[in-house]
Model the fold of this input.
Amino acid sequence: MKTNKAFLFNEEEEAERILKEGFDIEGIDYGKMYIIAKYFREKYNYGEIRLERKIIDFCQSVDSNFNPITQAEYIQKWVKSAMKYDLRKINSIYITKKDVEFLREIENEKHRKILFAMLVLAKAMKISGTKRGKEDYKTSDNYYIRYNNLSDVTRISRISNVSEMALALILHEYKQYFTFYSPYKELIRVDFVDTSGDDDIEIDNLEDISEMYEKLFGKDICVVCGKEFERKSNRQKYCEDCSKKIKSEQTIKIINEKRRKAKSK
Ligand SMILES: [Zn+2]
Done:
């Protein structure tokens, strides 16, 4: 029985997809049933008893051998959590220019991708306080991710061949930017997040942030010589050599202009 609890940015979309196309695995995905239960409760505004009936009907429609008596413990868990939590519905998060500048300083490409994913997840966790009626998680000034989100970091950043152990070791190299709580507390505080509030860069494809990564940090082609270069700012159009040349040409122009004006006085 698979209980895969990946962090999903938009659980509503996922629930609708499952109801249309079925689970990705044969039979019932017990991990995803939490989302289905929340979806039924929200969509039909069910109380506990009707929700339980709906869940049993649904499970039996997926697996005709589903036995509500032997599985009663699971059903109760799904119902309880659905009564307590709302569906997470995050379509986009915002980061700041300072966040981007900070990440540009990370020279190792793979490490930068990991830290970028940590930032995106921490931002999403912040706005995902899904406990019904409780807002306190959102009002804290700090940003956190959970230890069990580490597999989500590799998933959304699309880096391959990084085990959870390897990832933990990489994070340790950047320990000045994090606060690691004991595994018992389950939290990692992400301390490099810019909290100035100038959130003006939108990231909307949250399940795959590699495209946005390329946009923000990827290589560009110089408009003058056609060489590839790594952008250091969003406005940069030339490679370093060309921008040096252009700058010195502009300087000469300005000097000549000044001389010309001085002469004509
Ligand atoms: Zn160039």
